[in-house]
Amino acid sequence: MNQLNILPPEPFNEETFDQIQQELVQRINLQNSFNKEDIRLVAGVDLAYWEEEGRTRAVCCICVVDYTTHEIVETKSLQDEIKVPYIAGYLSFRELPLILDTFNQLENDPDLVMFDGNGYLHPRHMGIATHASFYLNKPTIGIAKSYLRIQDTDYEMPASESGAFTDIVIDGEIYGRALRTQQQVKPIFVSCGNGIDIDTSTEVTLALINKESRLPIPVRQADLETKKHRAARR
């Protein structure tokens, strides 16, 4: 993993967070940094939060899936207190430390990482999928279950068939896609994280869909794991 500083010195504030993101955004690569034929393992990442004795805690779950067989290869989970305050638009700073600590537990090295959240589809193109890529040194994809509205731009609903999509274009630039992964189910919102293009992000996402969910398998499994861990704490 990259040894970039994850967080600036305290106190944490929007100004210092913004400065880091403005530096990182210059390094985003929306082209494939890999050969699609080499994808073997894909990881899905999700977090869930709860309050415990007046403190905010979270669990990060990472599920590694075989890209070809869809079999679950490995699942790791880690809980910790979250000390970075919530600042709208800068959620990645709150989540990154726990995500990276959880990644360090993996016994398998994924070729690509999908996040339950946005990537390039973000006001500064720095959703968690994009931001985390600079520390993981891996191509990443953002998979969001709901639409993050940017500059009052709505998305156009894709046709009701598997694989149908509409591009989310803001100021002439593609931020992401509304993608229908199953016929007559709500679309998901796919965006590049880093080191991958939007067409490949879409292709990989669709290749990891099964009949159980509109979400790709790695993200779906990570989401189920986080819910299970959070429920056990209540």
TrEMBL record:
What this chain does, per the entry, is described as: DNA repair enzyme involved in the repair of deaminated bases. Selectively cleaves double-stranded DNA at the second phosphodiester bond 3' to a deoxyinosine leaving behind the intact lesion on the nicked DNA.
The name of this protein is Endonuclease V
Per UniProt, the keywords (alphabetical) are: Cytoplasm, DNA damage, DNA repair, Endonuclease, Hydrolase, Magnesium, Metal-binding, Nuclease
Origin species, per record, is Paenibacillus xylanilyticus
Q: Which domain of life is it from?
A: Bacteria
Names of the cofactor(s): Mg(2+)
Amino acids binding Mg(2+): D46, D116
From its record, what is one biological process in GO terms? DNA repair
